[in-house]
Specification:
Number of strands: 0
Number of helices: 5
Distance between the termini: 47 Å
Order of helices and strands: HHHHH
Radius of gyration: 22 Å
Helix content: over 70%
Strand content: under 5%
Largest sheet: none
C-alpha cells in the first residue's frame, strides 16, 4: 500500500471516529447539515449549479463554525430583527393612512404583510430549534 493510500485511510478512519461525536455534541447543527445536503441533492437533480455552489459554501461555513448555542442565538437574533421590521412597517402604514394616500397605503400594507410572513417563518424556525434541542 502506498503512502497516499495509507494517509487517505487514516483520514477516513479519523473522520468516521469523530463525526458521530460532533453530531452528538451539536444535534441541531447535524440536522441543519442534513437539511442543506438534501437541498444540494435537489439542486443537483434540477441542474441548478449556482444553487449547489451557494449551498456548498453554506455547508462549509456550517461545518467550520456551527454550535447549537450559536444556531439558537442566530435564530433569536433573526426573530428580534423581524419583530423590529414589523414594527417599522406598521408605523409606516399608519403614517400612510394618516396622510390619506391610498397608493402608499397599499404599498405599505404589502410590505407589512411580507415582514409579517418573515416574522412567522423566523418564529417557526426558532420554535423548531428549541423543540429539537430538548
Amino acid at each position: 500500500m502506498n503512502r497516499t493510500a495509507i494517509t487517505l485511510s487514516a483520514c477516513v478512519l479519523t473522520l468516521a471516529y469523530f463525526a458521530p461525536a460532533q453530531a452528538n455534541d451539536n444535534p441541531l447543527c447535524a440536522a441543519k447539515e442534513a437539511d442543506i445536503q438534501q437541498q444540494m441533492d435537489t439542486a443537483r437533480q434540477q441542474g441548478n449549479s449556482h444553487r449547489v455552489d451557494g449551498l456548498q459554501e453554506a455547508l462549509d461555513g456550517l461545518r467550520s463554525n456551527c454550535t447549537d448555542d450559536k444556531l439558537l442565538s442566530d435564530a433569536e437574533d433573526n426573530l428580534q430583527e423581524s419583530m423590529e421590521e414589523v414594527k417599522e412597517r406598521r408605523e409606516e402604514l399608519n403614517e400612510a393612512v394618516q396622510d390619506g394616500d391610498m397608493d402608499k397605503v397599499e404599498k405599505r400594507r404589502k410590505k407589512l404583510d411580507e415582514a409579517t410572513d418573515e416574522l412567522e417563518a423566523h418564529t417557526r424556525e426558532l420554535n423548531a430549534l428549541r423543540k429539537d434541542r430538548h
